[in-house]
Amino acid sequence: MPGSAVDRLAAELSELAGAPVELERPAKAEHGDLATSVALRVAPVRGRAPREVAEELAAAAVGLEHVERADVAGPGFLNLWLAGSWFVRTLSEVLDAGPAFGGGFADPVERVQVELVSANPTGPVVVSAARNGAYGDSVARLLEFAGHSVEREYYYNDAGRQMERFRASVEARRRGEEPPEDGYHGEYVRELARAGGDPVPPMLAQIERTLERFRIRFDTWELQSELEEREVPAALARLDTYERDGAIWARTSAYGDDKDWVVIRSTDGKPGYFAADAAYMLRKFGRGFDRAIYVLGADHHGYVGRLKAISRMLGIDPVRVEILVYQLVHLSVRGETTKMSKRHGDVVTLDEFIDEVGVDAARWYLVSRGHDQTIEIDVDLAAERSQKNPVYYVQYAHARIAGILRNAGDAQAGRAPPGELAPEERDVVKRIAEFPRVVRESAERRAPHSIPIYAIRVADDFHRFYHRHRVLGGGESESFRLGLCRAAQTVIARCLDLVGVEAPERM
RNA sequence: GCGCCCGUAGCUCAGGGGAUAGAGCGCUGCCCUGCGGAGGCAGAGGUCGCAAGUUCGAAUCUUGCCGGGCGCACCA
């Protein structure tokens, strides 16, 4: 039977209830191990009293294999107490699956391209782009874990006006002059000036180094200039266009966007950025991807309608073009919120941020908040109190377990407890049993922030269990508890990996 | 003006129709003869921006208003 232990139970109950049952973990222990409110939802439709429906379902539920007790509470909640057999079986599933536990749920399996960061190489990676990377890479990791085939791509423009300004700024420094007013003034411009040659390749190389340090590896790097030469003409032929005021326009307003866009400029007769966007999309799907994911900051959210319109115009199903928008990041340093602008050199770069707080904390902070949320990170706090960061709390749980397993030597991790499980043991098993659902929802919703939040709960439950019960030297419970430790470690390690954070054996 | 995102504890944030709204930090206390104290336990702290609506039930869904962020180029 497919699905997790919780899913299977929910499916069995759905059968009994004649309606889809969602099982939740109640906030209070007296409400059982799992609970559902189906009766409340179903009763009005059937013209019956909720409690009555719940009572019937309770009577049927106790006949199920792993259900020990079923109570009706409140207006019609059904509270379930699980039998010891459920815990044994659940723990066995985790241990048997090992690192694969909770993954492989993609259906159908797709070839997915995730395009992320894609900052033009006019300067070092700044923290808002880092959120793009942390978010996009975690989405990519979730999709990979789900079983999809994923490629990460970095797309950049090496020939636009921004790049001209950038090169001009470097040239100015080489002549010993100040860069133009609208140019780039950062210290890195001086360094590039000293090196000689086109500053773009070294800048790009630096970006790649920074992102690798941030644990993001790209499969492909796409240049807009090459795209324009090779593929813009073909794309133009496929667009729905018209001429006006000496320019060629795309009729995007007829394809869901709120305005039309210039494809060929009247000023110089050259294709504009829109033409490159269209050519780029054709290229993505020409390479055989089932789905193209764009990761964009809120400052580019105006692209959404435009990209969707392009897909319709090109005859590409818009659902295959997925645009993920994340909100911006503010850093506060010494109580002051920094404004990030590459042109004035008054920036906090990703490298500086990593130097300050470490890669693990940097990735954790950037991905543990909902992507729809504008976030503010207090750099001093993150750095100074790094010991108290949630990321270390979770890593500590992992390292602690690693320590126990090291000390365990040849002792075998088992699955069956000698008797009744203690409440803290039940809590750990119930928590890790939630993982498949958490990770699936996180992947489907493109919401990786729920992974670190869940990981904190696992660490919580484990620390509580550890504090209350001995593992090694725990007598006849030792084997079962070692199994519990290994299962918890497996889940924590996976959570950390999904957000690009290391799972240390020692701290 | 139009569009997108957001207003939840002092601060940073979870919570995607259900029970008495949660966590971390900060604040008050308590717990080390033992596997890692980077730990555990307890407490104080809330008109979930405001107002209507839908619902048996709303922080959650709808609408309006208020407040904040970001977009609305023949720029990239």
Strand content: 5-15%
Helix vs. strand class: alpha/beta
Radius of gyration: 27 Å
Taken from the alpha-carbon principal axes, the silhouette is globular
CATH architecture title of one domain: 3-Layer(aba) Sandwich
CATH fold-level label of one domain: Rossmann fold
* Highest-level CATH class of one domain: Alpha Beta
Mean pLDDT: 92
Biggest sheet layout: 5 strands, parallel
Describe, in plain words, how this protein is organized in 3D.
The protein is α/β, with parallel strands linked by helices. Among the domains are: 5-82, Arginyl tRNA synthetase N-terminal domain (Gyrase A, domain 2, 2-Layer Sandwich), CATH 3.30.1360; 116-218 and 327-384, Rossmann fold, CATH 3.40.50; 389-498, Orthogonal Bundle (Isoleucyl-tRNA Synthetase, Domain 1), CATH 1.10.730.10. It is built from 19 helices and 14 strands. It has a five-stranded parallel β-sheet with strand order 6-5-4-10-11, with helices on both faces. Strands 1-3-2 form a three-stranded antiparallel β-sheet. Strands 7-8-9 form a three-stranded antiparallel β-sheet. Strand 2 and strand 3 (77-82) form a beta hairpin. Helix 12 (350-357) packs across helix 13. The longest helix has 21 residues, at 478-498. It is globular and about 80 Å long. The protein binds one RNA strand of 76 nucleotides through helix 2, helix 6, strand 9, helix 11 and strand 14.
